[in-house]
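Amino acid chain
________________
===
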Amino acid sequence: MSHPEQVRQRIIELEVEHRDLDQVIATLILESGYDELQLRRLKKRKLQLKDHITLLKMQLTPDVPA
């Protein structure tokens, strides 16, 4: 498997995890008496995933001379 293919596959995996976290966060918020610390950790993880996805997508974009 070539490097771009590996990067694309990793992006897909991270996007799936990001969507899963969306669902977990939404479910947790609907529960009464949810754990605020757990919610903050999940949101932080979701932001980390988004940042990682962005960095990987930047690797796939060729540099354009200015």
